[in-house]
Structure formats: structure tokens, C-alpha cells
Design brief:
A 6-stranded mixed β-sheet has the order 6-7-8-3-9-10, sandwiched between helices. Helix 3 crosses helix 4. Helices cover 33% and strands 29% of the residues. It has 307 residues and is of the alpha/beta class.
């Protein structure tokens, strides 16, 4: 059974096509990820599915409710936008209770839920502090739990951990998993490959408004199993990528953070040719590697995920 069904959904802004006729479904109870770089169409898709933008074409249903029934959809969804939706002049506790009341939650239930959410996010000791005194990461954590005050059936998370430190990001990940285990279907947009790999049951890779592939993270990574990957820790110079891409059977190359990654079709003598081309450069280590979702994105689009 599907919680979300999308058919040929499109959004144009004048001559610019932000979302180009995409179709997919989100199954009941899964965490479904939209993985792609900034500007790929992720947020525009979320804004259409949450009735903040009207599609130019196509159709979509959330829990069987068409996008034309805005009130019906808004009553069953929670939204965590990229922009914070907090009142800085209220306390954390007051923000949650107010938001719950706006969605028709009784005052008694709103107070109870607020305390539960603050404890789950490790903010219970700051419940009576004004939000203006919170750090950016604390505000983002509060922003996430606020969308759950009315216990939505479907939760939309648009880049929920952008700008967070690793510890705060991991706390959000664990919280998302816990909410999902309780039965909430989750639609997540991200440009962090680790986030999609860790959280999502299935991932749609989107670029330039089009979906390039949809599958489980494991199945997506298996798509490039025919290619071996060699990682080489080496100093970069302006000719490094051009030199290694010229080696026969090196299909592509990527350099980031001191690591050269070569996508190869193995052949006799290939390693010797690579060593010859890299001679004179400072090589720290050479190892084989398993493919990542970023490797899948590179294979499908020809560019890095954060380009």
C-alpha cells in the first residue's frame, strides 16, 4: 500500500523546469529519500506534495487525498522545512504547545507531547529558555519535533540536518528512525549520501528535476558492482585527474579531501600503468573500496553529488 503516489508531476517557473514530469510512490511505513544536489528539485517536490506550491502538471495523492484537497492533506502531514519555523521570543516549551494548539491538539495533550518531544531531543533542561538563546543546532532539533506535535501520518523532512555537527546529526537520525518504527511514513530530502544510506528504505536519485533511479541503497550500489574502485591517498596537482583519466580502462576519476578514487575495468598491467602515471607524486596509500551512493550519483549523472 502506498502513502504517497506521484504521476508525471511537473513544476515550471516561466521557462525554467524545476521538476520535470516525475513519477514515484512512497510505501506505507517506509523512510523514502530524495537524494540530490542543491537545485535538483527536491524542495520544490516537497512544496508541491505539502500544498505550498501548485503543480504545473501531473497528479499526486497523500494517503489517498489529492493535492487539490489542501485542508485534507495538511491535517495528516507534518512538515520540517529548511527554514526554521520558530518564535524566538517564546520558550522551547511554549513553541511546541502553541504549534500543537494550531493543529487542534488539546491543551492537556499538547503539554504532554511537548515534554515528551523535548526529552527525546535532549532539550528538557532548556524547556523554559527563550529560543533566541539557543544554538543553531538546538533550534533545528526543536524545529523537527515541532512538526510531530499533532502526530502526523506522513512526515516531510526537507534537509533536516543541514549545518548540524556530527553528534547532533546522529541524534536526529536516531530520532527519525524511532518515529518511523512507531508507524509514521517519512519523506526525506538530503544531499548527504551517508544520511540517505543510513536512514532510507528506498532512495530516489534526482538531478535537474528528473529522477535517475529508485531502489534500496544496497541495490543502487550494486548497479556499479561491475566497476572496481581503487582509492589512492595522494597529493593533488592541476594535471592529476587528466593524467589518470587517460589511462586505458580507467572509466572515471574523482578527487576529494586528499583521496583519489578511480573507477576501473580491471585488466592485466593496469595497476602498473597507474603507478607509472602517478610516479613522482607523494602516494600515502592504495586500497580497494566499496561503492557509495555518491559513486552511484557520479555514474548516473557524470558529476559529483555536491557540484
Amino acid at each position: 500500500m502506498s502513502s504517497i503516489t506521484v504521476e508525471a508531476l511537473e513544476k515550471r517557473f516561466g521557462s525554467f523546469v524545476a521538476v520535470d514530469g516525475i513519477s514515484f510512490d512512497v510505501r506505507e511505513g517506509e523512510i523514502f529519500g530524495f537524494l540530490g544536489p542543491n537545485g535538483a528539485g527536491k524542495s520544490t517536490t516537497v512544496n508541491m506534495l505539502t500544498c505550498q506550491l501548485r503543480p504545473t502538471g501531473g497528479t499526486a495523492h497523500v494517503k489517498g487525498i489529492p493535492l487539490t484537497d489542501e485542508r485534507g492533506i495538511r491535517s495528516i502531514i507534518g512538515i520540517v522545512p529548511q527554514e526554521l519555523a520558530l518564535n524566538d521570543l517564546l520558550t522551547a516549551y511554549q513553541n511546541l504547545v502553541l504549534y500543537g494548539s494550531l493543529y487542534g491538539v488539546s491543551r492537556v495533550d499538547a503539554k504532554r507531547r511537548a515534554l515528551e518531544m523535548l526529552e527525546a531531543m535532549g532539550l528538557e533542561k532548556r524547556k523554559n529558555d527563550l529560543v533566541k538563546d539557543f544554538s543553531g543546532g538546538m533550534k533545528q532539533r526543536l524545529n523537527v519535533v515541532m512538526a510531530l506535535m499533532h502526530e502526523p501520518k506522513v512526515l516531510f523532512l526537507d534537509e533536516p540536518t543541514t549545518g548540524m555537527d556530527p553528534q547532533a546529526r546522529r541524534m536526529i537520525w536516531d530520532f527519525i528512525r524511532d518515529i518511523n518504527k512507531r508507524g509514521t511514513t517519512i519523506f526525506l530530502t538530503t544531499h548527504y549520501m551517508e544520511e540517505a544510506d543510513y536512514l532510507c528504505n528506498r532512495v530516489a536519485i534526482i538531478d535537474e528535476g528528473r529522477i535517475k533511479a529508485i531502489d534500496t541503497p544496497r541495490a543502487l550500489k550494486r548497479q556499479i558492482k561491475g566497476e572496481d574502485i581503487i582509492q589512492i591517498q595522494v597529493d593533488e596537482d592541476e594535471r592529476l585527474l587528466d593524467d589518470v583519466k587517460g589511462i586505458p580502462n580507467v572509466k572515471d576519476a574523482l578527487y576529494a579531501n586528499g583521496m583519489l578514487k578511480l573507477f576501473i575495468e580491471d585488466r592485466d598491467g593496469l595497476l602498473l600503468d597507474i603507478a607509472t602515471v602517478l610516479s613522482g607524486r607523494s602516494i600515502v596509500s592504495i586500497s580497494s573500496a566499496e561503492p557509495t551512493l555518491e559513486d552511484v550519483f557520479l555514474s548516473l549523472t557524470g558529476k559529483k553529488l555536491r557540484d
